[in-house]
User: Fold these one by one.
Assistant:
Number 1:
Amino acid sequence: MRHRVLGKQLSRSTAHRRALRRNMAASLIEHGTIRTTQAKAKELRRFVERLITAAKVGTLHARRRVIALLQDRDIVDAEGKLQDKTVVQKLFDEIGPRYADRPGGYTRIIRLAERRIGDSGAQVLLQLVEEKPTKATEKGSQSRRKRRAAKRHEAAAEGKAPQEQPAQGEKQAGSDQPEEDAGQADDK
């Protein structure tokens, strides 16, 4: 029985699963995005979010816990030269402070249309969420519903209600009468 056992086995032994999780987490921290299968991404998301939460704390104890879980790996550039920061240093110096005000949800999973060649496994991108606005969230590329809602909010803030236009063919009530007659009709 597997009562209260969390996580998936991913058809691997415990040591292999742990090594897979460490390597994929280090790659995600190093590059910001990785391409993997959906099952691995869902398991890795839990692990990485705990690491980032510990990095937000920034204490010596949190750093030692992350080193024990992640194992420290050097970041190597394209020429094979060692960079000045390791994965743990990058996590604590750059990624942790970036999400200081965010209460959680540091990663996103984006499903890809193409399947893996060998076993036709579903492919996804696992990314660290950016705090800066992207093209999709800029004002010019919002949906029509969001643009209209923004106009209504702006109009309400200015103190005037947005006026709705009648559809073509419809006449406004009382438009046949002149303005003077409309006022007299209300008095009667």
Number 2:
Amino acid sequence: MVRRQYRQIVIRYVNVPSEIDDNEVALDQIYESLGLGDDRDEVGKLVFRAIVKSTISGQGISSRDIMELGTVSQAAVIYHLNLFQRAGLVVKEGRSYFLRADNLSNTLDDMESDIRRRFERLKKIAKKIDEAYSP
């Protein structure tokens, strides 16, 4: 049986100031812009920040380590980790989670490439449909 990998990438327009001096606020803005959660989702933001910081420092992070960063249940952490994996943001290696690239900027570049490839495919299909229905 071939397992299909499902990815959902959502981009939300979030009013972001042009200059953000607080890195935590900037991470929250990226989190919300990627459609991973909203400004009330403290658990999701905690998980996102932990993965970004651990990846940039060259280490992964386990769900248990994330749990210990706050009063968060393992189920809530795992829920968010699975959500991030489905979005193509995070990969799991052994018991550790990482951004899919070595830093946040490269991860966003990879995700942008995914979106571009998907749109190119959709446009080819749309062109065939247009040609089939044109007089």
